[in-house]
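Dear colleagues,

As part of the handover before I leave the project, I'm documenting each prediction I ran so the next person doesn't have to rerun anything. This entry is a single chain, and its sequence is reproduced below.
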Amino acid sequence: MSKFKKKKSGDLPAISTASLPDIVFMLLFFFMVVTVLRDSNLLVMQRLPKGDQVEKLQKDRSVFIFAGKPGPGYEKYGKEAKIQIGDKYMDVGNIKFALEEYRRKLRPELQDKIMIALKVDGETNTGLVSDIKQELREQNLLKLIYITTPGNALESY
């Protein structure tokens, strides 16, 4: 019998976990940077009309104007259609100030190419929509897009 045992060469060394916290924090920061957060809460009801020629909108230079009756939880503001820009209800006369604020936030080369996206509930009066369009004309914001849902416009919703 032998007193000495040979070392086993098949054993693997233990994995070093010293850099594991660094990797976890790098992944955390990566996902924090690339995650897009919602910039506004929808305060109005949105049952959009249907359209058969729908395209994807570039969001880098567009401002969304929502119009419709106050949504669930916001009935205290009445039952008539309201205008929402960002997280606030607006009157037609205040649209000018809100759009100027959004225009200032854009890069200088995009400030003249701003697009207005109207998301109007299907049951909203056309008088409110025409008031919004008249206010946009006065500000020389003539690039207007109506947001719809894909489908046949002749079908009922």
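The chain has a mean pLDDT of 81. The chain has three helices and seven strands.

All the best with the project,
I.
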